[in-house]
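Sequence, please.
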């Protein structure tokens, strides 16, 4: 039973990671409104493909004619997210069986189930509220949180090992927690940058608009809630607001890089954790390189999607480190 629920949780975490990557691909290829209705697509369970289906869909949704190359991306993303919901339901079924030996897993399983259902609602609102930035960003953060919780659940559901309070990683627990907090802020800023179409607001590097401190409107750029009913595809903010968002993301990227680099060096100085420190440094330099490439090469789709993927992998690594540094309670 234990092995089953652990493998199921690992599979669900892998699917959640794929949902994050596919979601980034959908968003960055401007296919977020490829299907203007929910949960179907132009009234179809998949998407309209035949000529008569497309003609009917265009009549029913004249404000958004069918673009098949966008519709199929959005629906594949929804189907994969639906698969994740089913996996989380199966995890809850196993966790809540009376014979299950780890009753301490029941509440985490229930929390993940509630979160995944809320994620489904955010997915619906992303479409019905026409890519409202607050909802799009919350959907990204919810996806990252679901992935992190599933990974933690998989680690917790493994056979418990002996807790050694003298292990060197225990001393790093505060630094790991701080690193997670710093990374989460950076993920939010990245999501907010993408949701407001601000990735190219600063087309130069390392300066922005030719300045080390560009003209920026932080109040407007970080006004979270905006008017409902507006189509936010392509963004509605002026340049100064977008510069504020982009520049904040870039500055906090430096903070994130410095903090996690310090953590990596501390891991490298600990004999049993050197491999983890080396991996984290590679991930950090990869992520910085991808971010700079996004600017210099005007947001190539593959690079931008990979930028999201590495952020999720960094989060996963910090989850693993935190688990190793924490007492195991069941």
């Amino acid at each position: 039973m234990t092995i089953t629920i652990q493998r199921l949780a690992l599979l669900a975490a892998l699917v959640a990671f794929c949902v994050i990557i596919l979601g980034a691909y959908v968003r960055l290829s401007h296919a977020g409104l490829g299907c203007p209705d929910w949960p179907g697509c132009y009234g179809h369970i998949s998407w309209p493909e035949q000529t008569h289906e497309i003609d009917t869909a265009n009549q029913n949704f004249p404000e958004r004619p069918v673009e098949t190359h966008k519709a199929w991306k959005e629906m594949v993303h929804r189907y994969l997210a639906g698969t994740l919901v089913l996996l989380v339901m199966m995890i809850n079924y196993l966790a809540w069986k009376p014979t299950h030996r780890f009753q301490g897993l029941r509440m985490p399983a229930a929390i993940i189930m509630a979160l995944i259902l809320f994620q489904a609602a955010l997915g619906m609102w992303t479409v019905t509220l026409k890519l409202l930035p607050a909802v799009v960003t919350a959907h990204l953060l919810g996806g990252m949180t679901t992935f992190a919780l599933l990974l933690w659940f998989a680690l917790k559901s493994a056979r418990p090992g002996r807790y050694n309070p003298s292990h060197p990683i225990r001393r790093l627990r505060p630094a790991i927690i701080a690193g997670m907090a710093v990374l989460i802020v950076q993920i939010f800023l990245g999501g907010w940058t993408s949701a407001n179409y601000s990735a190219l607001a600063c087309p130069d590097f390392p300066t922005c608009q030719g300045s080390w401190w560009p003209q920026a409107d932080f109040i407007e750029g970080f006004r979270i809630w905006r008017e409902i009913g507006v189509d936010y595809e392509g963004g509605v903010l002026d340049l100064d607001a977008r510069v504020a968002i982009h520049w904040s993301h870039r500055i906090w990227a430096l903070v994130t890089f410095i903090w996690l680099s310090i953590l990596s060096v501390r891991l490298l100085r600990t004999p049993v954790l050197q491999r983890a420190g080396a991996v984290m440094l590679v991930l950090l330099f990869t992520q910085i390189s991808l971010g700079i490439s996004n600017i210099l090469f005007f947001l190539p789709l593959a690079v931008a999607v990979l930028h999201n993927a590495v952020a999720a992998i960094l989060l996963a690594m910090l989850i693993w480190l935190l688990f190793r540094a924490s007492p195991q309670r069941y």
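The radius of gyration is 21 Å.
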